Amino acid sequence: MSQPFYITTPIYYVNAEPHLGHAYTTIVADVASRFHRLAGDEVRFQTGTDEHGDKIAQAAQERGVTPQQYADQISGKFRHLWPELHITNDKFIRTTDADHKQVVTSILQKVYDAGDIYFAKYGGHYCVGCERFLTEHEMEGGKCPDHGTVPVYQEEENYFFRMSNYTEQLKAHIEAHPDFIRPERYKNEVLSMLEQGLEDLCISRPKTRLTWGIDLPFDPNYVTYVWFDALINYLTGLGWPDGDNMAKFWPGAQHLIAKDILKPHAIFWPTMLMSLARAEGRPAQDYLYQHLNVHGYWNVDQAKMSKSLGNVVRPLELAEIYGVEAFRYFVMREMSFGLDSSFSEQLLVERYNSDLANDLGNLFSRVLNMLHKYRGGVVPQPGPEQPQDAELAKLAEAVLAEYRRENERFSFHKALASVWSLIGAANKYVVVSEPWTLDKDPALAPRLDRVLHDLCQLLAKVAVMIRPVMPLTAEKMAGVLGLGSIEPGMLALLEKGQALLAPGSQTHQPPALFPRIDTKKVQAKAAKAEQKADTKPAPKAAAEPTEISIEQFGQVKLKVATVLTAERIPKADKILKLTLDAGEDEPRTVVAGVAQHYAPEELVGLQVVIVANLKPAKLRGITSQGMVLAAVGPDGLCVVSPSKPTPVGSQVR
Ligand code: ME8
User: Fold this and answer.
1) Closest residue (by CA) to atom 12 of ligand 1?
2) Which residue among 52, 100, 127, 414 is the active-site one?
């Protein structure tokens, strides 16, 4: 029996509601858990919420509630979302749980007693978004690269963890265990951070500034730094120090995160664990996790998902339209684990129609319909094997091996691609074998039996292999095939070459697994929603041509920008997509309604005036970050441009 599998997601901050990114990580952890259960392994899967620290205290204050009330409310949203997405976590942990506070306190005391925590004065650049001090090296142009904000310089007396003492030990461990951090690009990133040398880690906040945290056991004037508190959740959930689950699951611990929190997980956490091991006089190996699995970011329309850009994707809304199963399949298949991916509903619909409706859905219904038409729905005794049957069986065996390998190394997209190569081959096998022709000649009955039998066995294998990603679809397929339920450990049976369906067993009429989505209808719905947004009556105040004060005018930020690119948008004859240099860190995308007045090439290089603080709006699936000013002349629109070349970013007053 293989090692028990323990998988964790990050515990999410309760300062924002769950979105596509959180859903993705948690679905990945769920798929990994379900895969290991299918393989016969013992599994424990933990997720939860991270509830202390500046960020949460600030968010609660803005809403006029206590941090605890606020944390209860948002934590509940995460907890209730997961079953809706068919997530099967064994534990939902909150950092405000009493047992967690107890564990954090004991670990702090041990590390302190072992001499790895000291008191000192420190000044540094603190990013509230990251909840940590950034080094000069990490900042870009004086800002946090992840949050685009200028960190606040803070100087105060605090407690520090001797993280720097563990630099060499951590480097050696990573070098000796090349897949400790995977995929490799993130391992390399961590090694280069270690090359630059580590600083000690500030692990306290004075209560004069922040009270929303766990008290330091050795100084009641301080609370614990949120990351030192949060990371320990992975141990609390197993009943550290001596709960049964600790001994069983910790040796096979794997963490799953996105690249944004690589440093806390690849550096803070293992060095904390090394220190804890040292404090207990045990080898570091006893405490280090097995793998850190790091995925990329979901972006929307090439932009980072953020509340201020108004492009946050809500998983439940998509699941309601397309079904949870299709949503889970899409995110798992579309994102190459480790790399960034761009989300669009159009892509989801395309994958749904091609992979689910066409490839899988068609194969399933055509095979079962033929079985019912030609053999009354009974799986036949197979006739003699021919080369094309052997070839398909060989492919199925290779796919099974690839499926396990890729799932074990968190390359879920590859595992799915491999299963779909088998589905594609099976569809071709149907075409080449022509069961409808075989049926016409009674002498060819054994051949038809063989084809139908092999296709049924193949569908049973597919049902088992898709179960981690689409559990309900898999069970539906298994039910129709007469397989009963797909039990834990069933993958191992397949790998032993055991046939899942006995000849003579009765199948049922197939339902349509994935009815095709009419893309025209989806587009029409999107266009209608856009039109509705365009024709919405303007707010009353704006409709009345009243005078405005200089202060009101001052709220509109007008800026000079240069058009870098201009392109037409398919099926939209009025608007152009522009990218503009407005003197900011990154070019802006703006959709302008000038397509009937300018050719795209006429605009490239032109200086224009934009409304820079307009709330972003989505037009034809593109997030427009502002508006280009144009005069409404008798012959159409005329873009407003400064009369002399002006530096980009200049204010217009
Ligand atoms: O960092 N694409 O919590 P958090 C993909 N509390 N994944 C995304 C994503 C995106 N655009 N946005 C968020 C914290 N995620 C800490 C963790 S753990 C001890 C403490 C997912 O709410 C992804 O898993 O900011 C990322 O690592 C996590 O949410 C960050 O969640």
Assistant:
1) 21
2) 127
Ligand 1, CB within 6 Å, residue ranges: 10-13, 21-22, 24-25, 50, 230-231, 233, 257-258, 260-261, 297-298, 305
State yes or no: is 372 an active-site residue.
no
- Cα of 652 vs centre of ligand 1, distance in Å, is 38
Q: In whole angstroms, give the CA distance from residue 292 to residue 338.
A: 12
SS3 (DSSP) at 508: coil
CA–centroid distance, residue 10 to ligand 1 (Å): 6
Determine whether 456 is an active site residue. Answer: no
pLDDT of residue 537: 42
- 8 backbone dihedrals φ, ψ, rounded to 5°: -125, 150
The first and second tokens of residue 547, run together, are 């005078």
* DSSP 3-state of 529: helix
- Crossing angle of helices 54-63 and 67-84, rounded to 10°: 100
| Rounded Cα gap, residues 561 and 552, in angstroms | 23
Tell me whether residue 304 is one of the annotated catalytic residues.
yes
Tell me if residue 127 is catalytic.
Answer: yes
| Calpha distance 597→575 (Å, rounded) | 10
The whole model's pTM is what? 0.81
Average pLDDT, 10 consecutive residues per value, the chain (653 residues): 93 93 98 98 98 91 94 96 97 98 98 98 88 87 89 92 98 97 98 95 93 97 96 98 96 97 98 98 96 96 75 91 96 97 94 97 98 98 97 98 98 98 98 97 98 98 98 98 96 94 97 90 66 46 47 82 89 87 86 87 91 85 89 79 87 87
